[in-house]
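Readers of this paper often ask what the protein records in our data store actually look like. Such a record has a labelled line for the sequence and another for the backbone structure tokens. Nothing more is needed to write down the fold, since each code stands for a local backbone conformation. The remainder of this section carries one protein's record, kept here as part of the documentation.
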Amino acid sequence: MQIEFDRDTCIGMFQCVAEWDGFEKDMDAGKADLVDSEETDDNIFVADVPDGEELDAKFAARVCPVDAIAVYDDDGEQIV
């Protein structure tokens, strides 16, 4: 499972941080950071979701008020 985070869209509500340790606060920028991610292009960050943390990652995506987070299954299909 993979998670994708559009940092430009993030408005810094930090609800994702409350749901999953895969996100942390960047108070200087007023945005969240996706831990251990790689930037792909245009401030989009991608990371693999560790085994056992899939549910938390999905919750983090679901609570984002601006839909800056997407979760994909192993076949590349968006599930959140």
Q: What stands out?
A: The longest strand covers residues 2-6. The chain has a mean pLDDT of 96. The chain is about 20% helix and 30% strand.
